[in-house]
Structures are given as structure tokens and as C-alpha cells.
Design brief:
Elements (H helix, E strand, L loop, with lengths): L5 H18 L9 H23 L6 H19 L4 H18 L1 H20 L6 H5 L2 E5 L7 H11 L2 H13 L2 H28 L6 H6 L1 E5 L14
Antiparallel strand pairs: 1-2
Length: 236
């Protein structure tokens, strides 16, 4: 028998969910894995564009401008061979740290924009971000209670790197360079691991819930199977 690859297993799981949804008496039909992935990517691209457009108007000081220019110089040196790989990596790490310290205000703006997009906006938009709306899916509570802003905050802190970004801002302000670099690298690795685990859980578990869904007690369902006239609660 031919061994199935990951893609085939995901397709089989989606087919299983379709058959399960057909036989369900409940009107809540779970979102397909592909719908959630496309919604996530759409949101990621859109949020990056929005953040770039807004933060471009945040003024930067002369020191930051010089640091960016130095990054370009180091990159050009590496391309033309005058800077070795080791020198390039070391200098870019140092410059990246200095830029992070100089652009804390921009990082704070980025976190605020993420909170507005992933927490406030879906709270008043039927549990949908723009990506979820396009893919016709939404977030809801597993116990059918009203979705709250706190639920969306918990999900986003885990799934959309908001918690890691907040901690990273604090680290760059209060830690030494070496400690900051090692700690932020560890946090990034943990965030990637959380995303991978969540993807596996969504694709292969019966309830199709990622870690963020499990913690917040939410699930993602087809949007046309639920009411659209209820706003979520600001509290629990």
C-alpha cells in the first residue's frame, strides 16, 4: 500500500469533516483547514501592508537613518565580496539590535495595530477578520456562549505573535545586547513551534482546534451557519 503524504492526510481529514458536518444536527459546520490557512495568510499580508502604511509616517531620528544606511553598506559589501560571511552576520546582528532599540515606538505602534485588527475588529464584526470574511468563516465559543474581547485577545496573543512582540519590546529596553539576542531568538523559536503544533492540531484532530483555540475555548466555523447580528462582549 502506498504511504500517504501530509497533503493527502490533510485532504482526507477535510473529507472526513465534510461527511461529519453533513450528518450533524448542529448548524455549526467547522471550517476547512485550507480555509483557515488562506484566511491566516490574507490577514498576515494585509496587516503587514496596513502597518507599513501607518508606521511610515512615524518620524525616525538621524541615528536610525544612519543605522539603516550602514545595513545597506554591509549588505553591498557582502554582495561584492569585500565583507566575509562571518563579518556580515555579526555586523547585521549588531545593527539589528541597535535599530530595534531606536525604533521601539514603531514596534509599539505595530502591536497596537495588531490588537485593533485581531481583537477589536473581529469583536464587532461577527468574529471575523478580513481574511476570515473572505473565506466565509468565523470564530465562535465552543460552549455557544457569546464571544468576548478577552477570548479574542487570548487567541491573538498565542496565534498572532502579539505576546512575543510585547515581550520583545520589553527585552530590548531592559536587557543587555547579548542577553536580548539570545532571549528573543528563543522566543521566536517557541512562537514558530506553537504555530507548527497548532497547524498539526487543526489539520489532524477531531475538533480542529489549535493551541490558541484550546486555551481560549473557541473554534472556527463556517460563517453562513451562525447569526451575524450579535456583537461580542467587551468582558468575559
Amino acid at each position: 500500500m502506498k504511504k500517504k503524504n501530509v497533503y493527502d492526510k490533510i485532504k482526507d481529514e477535510e473529507e472526513r469533516l465534510k461527511e461529519e458536518n453533513k450528518s450533524k444536527k448542529s448548524p455549526d459546520i467547522k471550517a476547512m483547514f485550507s480555509q483557515r490557512i488562506f484566511a491566516f495568510l490574507i490577514d498576515l499580508v494585509l496587516l503587514s501592508m496596513i502597518t507599513s502604511l501607518i508606521t511610515i509616517f512615524v518620524p525616525v531620528n538621524d541615528t536610525t537613518t544612519k543605522l539603516y544606511a550602514e545595513q545597506d553598506r554591509v549588505l553591498e559589501g557582502y554582495v561584492d565580496g569585500s565583507v566575509s560571511m562571518e563579518e556580515y552576520v555579526n555586523q547585521m546582528i549588531d545593527l539589528g539590535y541597535d535599530i530595534s532599540r531606536q525604533t521601539v515606538i514603531i514596534s509599539i505602534f505595530a502591536v497596537v495595530i495588531s490588537l485593533l485588527y485581531y481583537v477589536v475588529y473581529p469583536c464587532y464584526n461577527n468574529g471575523q477578520t478580513f481574511g476570515k470574511k473572505l473565506m466565509k468563516i468565523r470564530i465562535k465559543k465552543t460552549n455557544d456562549k457569546e464571544l468576548s474581547m478577552n477570548d479574542l485577545l487570548i487567541r491573538s496573543m498565542i496565534n498572532n505573535s502579539i505576546l512575543v512582540n510585547i515581550v520583545t519590546i520589553a527585552l530590548v529596553l531592559f536587557l543587555s545586547k547579548d542577553l536580548y539576542l539570545s532571549t528573543s531568538s528563543l522566543l521566536s523559536s517557541i512562537q514558530y513551534l506553537v504555530l507548527i503544533i497548532s497547524l498539526i492540531m487543526i489539520a489532524f484532530t477531531k475538533n480542529a482546534q489549535g493551541l490558541h483555540d484550546k486555551v481560549a475555548k473557541t473554534e472556527v466555523v463556517q460563517a453562513d451557519t451562525v447569526k451575524e447580528d450579535v456583537l461580542c462582549q467587551v468582558g468575559n
